[in-house]
Amino acid sequence: DYPNTYAYGTLVATNTGLSSTIFIQTADSAGNNANIDAQTFNPEDIFTVAISETDSSSARRSRRRRLQSSASPTYDAVITYLGNGLYSATYTILLSGEYEVSIQLGGNEIQCGQGESGCSPFNLAVAPAPTTSSMTEVESPAGEAMDYLVEAIAGQQGTLYLQAKDALGNNKDIGGDDFIVSFTSEADSSVIYKGQVDDNKD
Predict the structure, then answer these.
(1) Best CA proximity match to 6, nearest among 100, 83, 119
(2) pTM
(3) Under a CB-based contact definition with an 8 Å cutoff, are residues 48 and 26 in contact?
(4) Chain segment 102-123, per-residue pLDDT in tens
């Protein structure tokens, strides 16, 4: 009975690449747990749990990555019956952003006993995982006359941009990473210059 069925678990916030689980408790019209013989049905024939990136989040991600397409990714959870009318829905999100979690029972959004205002879809924030050095990028500012990755003038200040990323290539959206930038002379490895790193907190 979708009006009284409710959900809990990882419904508000998670991280990219992290296996997350939602629990769905089915209930009858009186609010009692709905017991069903799990041998007689496939849970995915009863429930659909779809996690879709919002249009505004997809557009922002596309602008950041200079993508031509702003198609929103959708993830389907794997549903398992646990017993006593309780189900688990497990999912893993690969792209950071803002998502909606739609939980439908028999084609209807569950209402969590809240009446027509309902509770589904839920709003889910997916943050990037911890920064990974192997995916982090560095580039020279596009508007500069010189490419400071490969050339410089002695005594003249140059600028490089560091973009912190997680293991899946998502841009980090907060600062705090402890980057160390150093320049070592190829002619004399004992000559090392350290760069000043400014954290833009983004």
Answers:
(1) 119
(2) 0.81
(3) no
(4) 999 988 999 998 888 889 999 9
